Amino acid sequence: MFYRKKYLNASLCLLIGLAGAFKVNTSIHALGVYGLPAVFGCTYSPTTGTALNDLIINWQRVRDSAVVHSFYSGRDQLSLQSPDYQGRTSLFHSELLSGNASLRLDRVSLSDEGHYFCSVSSNQGSNRAEVKLNFTALYTEPKLSIQILGRKVNFSYESRGYPQPEVLWTDAKGRKIPNTEVSFSRVEHGLFSMHACLTVDCCHELNYTFTLKNQPLGQVIQRNVAFRNGAAEYLKDCPYQYWIRIAFAIVHGVIAPCYAL
């Protein structure tokens, strides 16, 4: 009786030790870019005695337990997959037995942002870990609009992306220009439409730089707008039909006098 109890205790300790040794780790954060694939990193402790039929991998959305992707009995099992993810998910099958349970999600959108569970079970144990998908979108090439109001010029840039970026105007010496206007509105697919306006007196030489910074992606867009010496003298006489030509010139970095266009 004593030896049986001792054996059972030893077996229980062994099982607890095996379960404790089986680890699932995630990348904690994943970055998803609008329209592009994202990879949710997830690894587990592999062993040489594990076969594909012994492996169960389940990805779920945390907020409502929706099934994102399931794998068991040696193949993908997608009958219970949420319609939100149909046709968009895949595992790295050739690396499953090497401990890679990562998930690829195609065509990322804002609705995909949030927390996910990566659960892995094998003949060595079970465990799970959580990963958060952060959504972002590259800002588009800024579109420049110009409006001439008497002796003032209004420069306006419009661009779309996600999340709200840092926007600033600086002068030729790199000094930040105060009291500029920046506004945001939501557009299709949950993206932000950004409008940045700068209104200045055109009676002197102008040289300004527009900067947009999308921090999560490290995206920086800079565009320069400038007047040549003496151009302001002619802008007040520029008729409406020259505005488009002026806009073309400013995109290339410099506004020439009206008569030169």
Automatic annotation (TrEMBL):
Major subcellular site? membrane
Listed GO biological process terms: regulation of cytokine production; regulation of leukocyte cell-cell adhesion; regulation of T cell activation; T cell receptor signaling pathway
Q: Where is the Ig-like domain?
A: 35-134
Q: Which InterPro entries match?
A: BTN3A2-like_Ig-C, Ig-like_dom, Ig-like_dom_sf, Ig-like_fold, Ig_sub, Ig_V-set, IgSF_BTN/MOG
Q: Where is the signal peptide?
A: 1-21
Q: GO CC: one term?
A: external side of plasma membrane
Where it sits in the cell: the answer is: Membrane
From what superkingdom does this record's organism come?
Eukaryota
User: What Gene3D superfamilies does the database record attribute to this sequence?
Assistant: Immunoglobulins (2.60.40.10)
Q: Which SMART domains match?
A: IG (SM00409), IGv (SM00406)
Keywords (alphabetical) are: Disulfide bond, Glycoprotein, Immunoglobulin domain, Membrane, Signal
Show the GO MF annotations.
Answer: signaling receptor binding
Q: Does the keyword Electron transport apply?
A: no
Q: Which PANTHER family match?
A: BUTYROPHILIN, CD276 ANTIGEN
Q: What is this protein called?
A: CD276 antigen-like
